[in-house]
Amino acid sequence: MIATLTWLLGTALAIAFGGALMAILNARYFRRLSPQAGTPGAIDLYLPMRDEAANARACLASFLAQPELRRAIVIDDGSSDESAAILAQIAREDERVLLLSVPAGAPAQRSPKARALAAAIAAAPIEAPFALFADADVRALPGALGATLATRAALDVGAVTGFPRIRVRDFWAAGCALLPRLLLLEAFPMRAASGIDPRFAAGNGQWFLVERDAYARSGGHAAIVGLVEDIALASALKRSGTRVACVDARDCVVVEGYDGLRASLDGLGRSLLGQVGILGSLLYSAIYLLRALLPIAALVAWLHAFSTGLRAWFEIASVLTLGAAAPMLAWHSAAAAVERPRGVPQPPAAPFALALGLWAFCSGIRGGQRWRGRRIGRANPRPL
Fold it and tell me: Which residues cross the membrane (predicted)?
């Protein structure tokens, strides 16, 4: 029993200190975008939408106000609400907006978004020097496109993928919203990602800028076979020799987060399941469960130290306390990118991460998930 507990706490300490060290190292390479002007007409925007009547106008308005935008190609992917009518009206009002729909004969792909984007580019090829792929819940703040172009040039890369600020409305959504950024900061070596090794690929489909020629060399969305299209695109770009940079876009881009716990688990669980698979989702929960043991173990160790007065127990309690506090480094950075209503606190990550991993695991066991009325396919049963 003592040996097992010692092993568990040792593993938890290694995970906690390793994650904190990774977050410290990543801070150097996770460049923060600063709003600025860029080359007018340098970007073609590709924006898939399905049942986005609530987001369509605000999203497009934020992009159309950017002078760097040349065209906005919007793909209606079989919406059942008023999205198509709203988009058609916007297209009539602004000639830069081109409205397309996914043809019935488009090749099948596991990712509906990859299928929609592949069909859009086949119908309206990239004409500007750069293409930007985004989502309907994105709001581009003034200077966002210029900042992304400038950072790409400064880093001398072929693609830039940004991680935006997330605007939430309640406590439960706030607890889930910081989890993707936490995973990026604590587990993804951004220095290695600056190279062209496809094993170290990260992407965020909410904000993904790529050079036109680099996109063509990679095969684009038409060649994507995986469920998580943004990471698959980053991998394809790297395999074709293009470097991809991850950037902190919190000052330039805002995303409307999910409402409530159920919607957050559905949306984020879909991404987690597609990225790491069924067993990987279970491992994700296990890691946070182990880390949650550290504060409890530290409290018990301090009580025992004061009751016995033994120096060894004071040293053990100190190490456990440091281990319990280490994840706060990444948590503080991730929480700063979550915009919450006044009076709503930012909850700890562990219970929400545990719930997310178990939710994704159970969804995978049941045979995949449904999203916007569609089954999106069974995930890889093994971690990537």
Answer: 282-305, 312-330, 350-368
